[in-house]
Fold this protein.
Amino acid sequence: MNEISWDVAVIGGASAGLSAALMLGRARRRVIVIDAAAPRNRFAAHMHGLLGHDGRPPADLLADGRREVESYGGRIITATATRTRREGDGFAVETADGEVVRARKLLVTTGARDELPDLDGLAERWGRGVAVCPYCDGYEVRDQRIGILATGPGSEFQAQLLRQWSPSISYLADAVGGPGGETRAAFDARGIHVEEGPVRRVVSRNDRLAGVEMADGRLVELDAIFTIPRLVPRDEPLRQLGAARTEHPWGSFVTVDENGQTSVDGVWAAGNVVNAMANVAVSIGAGALAAGAINHALVLDDIRRAVSAVAPTPAEPE
């Protein structure tokens, strides 16, 4: 692989990366995808709200995407990128197994990971009764008993948002504390119940969520729990290249323009690695936009190379 120079190396092989690779393959670009095979939504059994694919397992969508990319000549390898550096006019990506991939342009779609609250039993139910996105999972638990495990100020609106899916909402204040003032009045007005005090653990029965046990021993029976974990972008390749960042209320993310271009010339990024709000549909679109911008940049490079190759040699002075 060391001898091959690719037009584009894509680090990350989930929805954003495969979408970009598909577009680039159809543009007859030599594209390679370096995929660590750990997409953020691997814990979910089904996707929802994705037009034409509602209810599909996310693994099935990615399997189809890989086949489509490969049908246009793209290559996909299962590997973890450990080091990314500029090399000449392009980039070199080192993998954990010692391979080096060289490419003219780079697209990073490595996604993010969710840091869940440190609560006994919560991680075991992640994607199986515990979720973050009402638009992804709210309909499946409509009219059921839904708990909101508070992690910060955003949890208050999360509770109000989920109220449209169910009249039975319990706000588990835990260490955050119960809301006051206008927020509490709004909770009361819409029938959102507040459970004060620490939550001890998440309770499961017969491999199904049963509720939460409070510190005082009470069991709050629930059919689903929503919470807002801390989203940590897997942006090591972008950090290594010195990409500029922007601080947001929800965290620090690498700065990109509307087409995903970073502050590093020749480097783009798309999906959760740069956008905390990107679901599968948004990530697919972001990958396609980035691919178009990358191909545009490659065409400009091709023009410059072609012109340089045929330009007359300056005459030697007499």
Summary: The CA atoms of residues 126 and 243 lie 32 Å apart. The mean pLDDT is 95. Residues 280-310 form the longest helix (31 residues).
